[in-house]
Amino acid sequence: MRSSFMGLETAKRGMYTQQAALSVLGHNIANANTAGYTRQRVNVKQTSAFPNVGFDKPYLPGQMGTGSEAGSIQRIRESFLDIQYRSDNSQLGYYASRTDALTKMEDIMNEPSEQGLAKTMDRFWQSLQDLSVNPSNSGARTVVLERAKAVAETFNYVSGSLKAVQSDLQNQLEVETKNINSLLNQIQNVNRQIADVEPHGMLPNDLYDERDRLLDQLSGLVKIKTSYSSSGGNSLSSAEGKVTVDLVDENGSVIESGRVIDGNDIKIDPKQLKVNYNTATKLVESVSIGNNTVDVEKFTTSGKLTSLIDSYGYTKDPLTNDTNGLYPSMLKELDLIANTFANEFNKVHSAYFAGPPASTATNLNDKQGGYFFSDGTAGLPEDQVVGSGSVAALTTINASNIKVNITNVNNIAAGLSTNDGDGQNALKLAEVMRRNDLDFGGTPKTITSITSYYQGVVGSMGVQSQEAERLMSNSAILVDAVDQNRQSVSSVSIDEEMTEMVKFQHAYNAAARNITAIDEMLDKVINSMGIVGR
Amino acid sequence: MRITQSMISNNMLRNLSSSYSKLDKFNDQLATGKKINRPSDDPVIAMKGMYYRSDVTQIEQYQRNLSEAYNWIESSDEALDKVGSTIQRMRDLAVQGASGTNSKESNEALALEIKQLISHIGSIGNTQVGDKYVFNGTNTTQPPVDMTINTAADGTITLGGTYPTATSYSPFNVSVSLNVNVAVNTNPSNIFDQATLQKIVDLHNGLQSNDPKAIQTGLGELDNILQNVLAARTQIGATQNRVEMIDDRLGTQEIIANRIMSDNEDAEIEQVITELKTQESVHNAALGVGARIIQPTLLDFLR
Q: Structure pTM?
């Protein structure tokens, strides 16, 4: 036999359930614009029917429903999309940072333009041509000297600016490493909080959101793989558990000592990353993960961090002190150009002679040329005793120290004879910039001209930069697409929430009306029954 | 697919920003007039651009060198023209003196003029272009002719000082194209040299001493000198022709190089403006549609 008051209880449960649904709905609307928020739903389930099956079950035609209850509150999220998003996001992080580094490099090189190194060299060439027709004119000589200074200073400036950006990249590298460590700590903290809640049979949805948000951020910096382990106790089957984070390479295999957070043992702190530099080259040599040191070659997880290491430069083998990476390569090329150019120029400048020795010189050309460019060392001979032959090459000249050695314009060896009007050597000097038989070393040897070698360097930088930009926009499109899908599943739709609200409100009102109906029914029984004839 | 308000506004923002970046690109192209502004825009155009720029600079420089070459050639020609007319004048005087009808005094007067003309030729030998002596090879800071005329008691003269010799000449080369050098100066060794001038001195002395035979010989020598001057001027003329041809070629090359450079990197303004206009209307449409889409929600229609 059922209870008279059962209907009241059922209706009350209906009201409670709808109220719970409305509260969750309110939470959704409140978080409609919260980044990383996942909409939540109340899993409404029916309460167990009456009567229970048993020996002394009351006699009823069948089981009768007893209303509803809010079973659990769950996030609506697709974890597969998270995996996709994080994988593409690492790629985006890598190429966005690479593009950034290359764009800055392009800005510094400033080619093609009217101010770049190529134009400065052209102007120097022009001044030498002018000198060849006006060798006795000290104005033409001064112009040559000033333009030579401009060439040396442009080399210095470009090299200095590249180094400044390189040291910015190092700062960024340090900042991002700290950032990664902080994210790992935060994730582990959230892990611990989740592990406290889940065993009680509850779903800490907002903590899940927090953790996913942190993992998304981390994925831009390093490529990660996540796996989950249960918190035990009375955890629900839909509970996510504690996350394990592994650093993985391009192919998804975990790198050496790449397990930074172990979900199975949340008591231990996450492993911290630290970038180690080579003492000689000052470039990245290895990355410490916790107590283990991983060679930079084996630290293959893609993301902003690896891109920064690539751009800043790294040393593979501390024994050979090799230098790799975007900025070191460009600096190396510039050094090579400056060195090859300066030494060839010095050679031609000091090769020609005629007339009496320098000490008795009366004419402008009556001495043999000396060092035109130097590595900044003071006191190198500007001229030398006639008949000395070319000066020795200075292997130390590079883009950052190249300097014009000549201070007296009359020491510019413009001629091949004692005659003041002889400008033949100025022409030979001008040819140094056009001659295509200069040796740039390498295997096989690169034999070409200064200008075309430099054009090659700028061209390959352009190609690298273009490629990085293209891959960045490709991965940005992928990330956007995946994010769209994720949003499609998880983001809050106001219209939808409004519709639901109407639905729940109606159900709530109806449940309340149900109570009124039962009330009237009971009123009939209690107050109006058994008063026949009264 | 389930679409939510936040997706629409995110999408709208993304589309607007990509539209802005296109507008920015067109703006860059219009403002600079260049198709590309950094190597990564198009590495090939950038590399070619550097090469063509250098090409154009080279041609401009060779043209500048050419004007120096013209300067030398024209000054030398002008100087030799003067030498020619001076010799011609001497010849006229010598013919007068050779007629045999002249008195000794009038021949002496002729000799006086010739003496002046000799120092005139000497000064022509020191012709300068700017501050450079044109007839002294590459030794342009030293005057080639240092003439002193010693007059004896009987009025005859002897030459002193220094004069250009065959060995003092060296070509003054001007670079007018890659690996093409033109010697723009003239070898003065058979015009301003001491032997040649001595012949005129002999003529002078012949007139001075009224020696008809010496005058006749001198007359013949003057013709030889005139021949030498003409030969030198022919040489100059030939050089000038060559330089003019190179000038013409450089002129054409300049136009071609500039055109190639422009084809390579200059933006086609009509095209960019058209594209800009198209992009503008797309942008306006995007703004308009966006504004309509993000405003209404179901809320507006629920009581």
A: 0.86
